[in-house]
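User: For a reading group we're discussing how well predicted structures match intuition. Take Lysine transporter LysE. Before you show the prediction, I'll give you the sequence so everyone sees exactly what went in.
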Amino acid sequence: MPTLATLATFIVVVLGLFLIPGPAVLLTITRTVQGGRRAGVMTGMGIALGDLVHTLCAAVGLSAVLMTSALAFDVVKYLGAAYLIYLGIKALRERPSDPQLPMAPRVSAGRAFVQAVATEVLNPKTALFFLAFMPQFVHAQDGNVLLQFLVLGTVFVAMSAMYTTAIALSVRPLGKFVKRFTWLLRWQGKIIGSLFIGLGLRVAMQQR
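Assistant: Thanks. Here is the predicted 3D structure of Lysine transporter LysE, as C-alpha cells, for the group to look at:
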C-alpha cells in the first residue's frame, strides 16, 4: 500500500493538474453544452474508464518490469521523470492563447460515453503520461507494487469522475468563472509545465 505521505502528495499533484482545464475538461464542457448534463456526465465517466484502462495496463506492465529487475524499474522511473520534465518545458515554451472549446456534433449520452472511452483509450499521449506519471509514486519498499498501482489508479479515476461530474453539473457557473479568470486559462501551459518539471525534479532528487 502507498504510505499516507505518498498518497497525500499524489492527491495534491492530481488536484493541481485538474484545476487547470485540459482537453478532457473542455470536451466535458462541450458535450454538456451540446447534449445536456447527462451527456456531459457520461463523457466524464467515459474519460475515467479510459484512464482506468491505462492504469491497469501501466500497473501490469511496470509491475512485471520490477519483478524482472529493480534496476530496470528505476530506469523506467528516471525515463518517466525525464518525460515529465520534457512535457513541462514544452508547456512552458507554448505561447499563451485564448482557450477554445473543441467543436463536436451533438450526440446522445450513450454515444458520448462510448466516444469518450475510445478517445481516451486510443490516445497514445495518455498512455505515455500514465507510464511516466504513475511510477513516480510507487516505491518497492512500501509493499506489493501492483497493489500500489491499483490504489493510486483507483484514486485518480475516482477523482477524475467526481471532477468532470461536478463540471457537467455546473457549466453555467463555470462559464462565469472562466470569463473572470481567462488569464488562468491563457497561462495554463506555464502552470502545468511547472507542475511537471517540479514532479520530475522531485523524483530525481529523492533517488540520490
